[in-house]
Design a protein that fits this description.
This protein is an alpha/beta fold. Helix content is 30%, strand content 27%. The chain is built from eleven helices and 18 strands. α2 (171-177) runs antiparallel to α3 and α3 packs antiparallel against α4 (201-212). The two termini are 43 Å apart.
Length: 371
Amino acid sequence: MNIHISIDLQLLTLFDGDEVVREYSISSSAKGVGFRNGSYRTPTGQLTICEKIGYEQPLGTIFKERIPAGMWTSESSDDGDLITSRILRLQGMEALNKNSYDRCIYIHGTNHEELLGVPASHGCIRMANIDVLELFDLTPLDTPVFIEPPQRKRGKILFFDCDSTLSSIEGIDELARAKGPEIFQQVVDLTNAAMNGEIPLHEVFPRRMEIIRPDKSICDAVAQSYIDHIVEGVKPTLQSLRDDDWTIVILSGGFASLIQPLADMLGIPFVEAVPLHHTADGQYAGYGNDYPTTRNGGKSEIIREWKSAMLPKTTLMVGDGISDLETLDEVDLFIGYGGVITRESVKKQAEHFIDQFSDIPALAKKATKKK
């Protein structure tokens, strides 16, 4: 027995030698393919089934950390990413995908059977519950699994900066403001120096955070402030872009946990931003200092990863700062935004510079036609 999974076709084929035994509709990652831990992307290449979990458990069993933890039925209201019925755990056999076991990459049943046939998972291979039961029974341990990388170009991705773009605040400045006027001024000066290209971002980031050390309550207040200060025109613009089949991604040097509530409210499914850590009692415990957007060139690095993962036909970036401008060579169109603050270096070098969000859909459509 051997398994072939096509990302392009969203199809799992079970072979006995060269003979097709079964074909099943699947769902791979909504974020495409990739290998980085924490990327929520589906690995590709040669893997093998190294564990089989769920023997004799009823159809619809929910697994948490691979242990039965309840039941799911089609009438259940839980819309999270549940792992149900059976687990076929995968081990990577190649240098790039060898971390698949530690990443907990599975073939498993899902509570989102309605999304089978389109990429929608968080990295694993989802299957219909009745199908994964059958596959589980047909495949022994050590069955080879080949996940074929995508070849088709599909979709369009538009990356938005967050601070002074989607929201009129600078999150790091608001964190500092809560610590008093002296700390606030120190941090504002550092932020402006970084956004104007005067100090490298990798030097500014740790200096600001060591000054501020924000606790959870301050962070929660700033998360709400992002929502309270949404830039005029953002909501209808995003809806227009969604209607035109753009995938929207927030790409920010801010903190993911502060930006996520804004993204949820705006219906933006993907946030690329810096992890922020707190202790159980809410005290500051550091941040993801190795995350790409903590340094110059980091946004370009993440865009390259998305392009490799998704093979989009068109990519755009909208932002106000130097770290956004750095992506100019990675996207089909860079749009400088000056509706909150105008940075002269960005205005001078951007292909288009706008003050109104309502200008974006027409520019996006034009960029697509050029392709």
